[in-house]
């Protein structure tokens, strides 16, 4: 019979090996985000089943491999929108997003605004101006704001 410490040591070594494998997958996503990647291809690269890779990746990093890949693509697209002179379509293709609808939806979900609005706001900040945003122009006046002006103050 084996000594109990040997079993614990073997389990710790296996855990370290699993974490190294997951780090290789994450590093591959960071490097090759613009290429067509899917969980099956990532799993084949480290010789594990796709379902096992997804579960282990989520446990280690708190997100699925696909969500991590999408976040990397959107992060890179945001940088290109700020500093590049490419159009939104060219940027979408450059970061490897499959379709315009998916790109716009994920960008809006992760950044909070659509890509073209993000670029508009960024260029206005650099230029030192305030962008005109339709939601602000059509926002209703709050009662407290309207009451702050004295009645008849502007009529004299």
Structural description of this entry:
The chain has 9 helices and no strands. The chain is mostly helical and 156 residues long. The protein is elongated. Residues 130-156 have low confidence and may be disordered.
Helix/strand layout:
Elements: H1 4-31, H2 39-45, H3 50-61, H4 65-83, H5 88-94, H6 100-111, H7 115-127, H8 134-137, H9 143-147
Helix pairs in contact: 1-4, 2-3, 4-6
Describe what is shown at a glance.
The protein has helices at residues 4-31, 39-45, 50-61, 65-83, 88-94, 100-111, 115-127, 134-137, 143-147. With 156 residues, the chain is mainly α.
Low-confidence stretches: 130-156
Supply the number of helical segments. Answer: 9
The global form is elongated
Question: What Rg is obtained from the alpha carbons, in whole angstroms?
Answer: 25 Å
Mean pLDDT: 80
Distance between the termini: 100 Å
Proportion of residues in β-strands: under 5%
The helix/strand order is HHHHHHHHH
Beta strand count: 0
Helix content range of the residues, please?
Answer: 55-70%
- Main sheet attributes: strand count, strand direction, barrel closure: none
Alpha-beta classification: mainly alpha
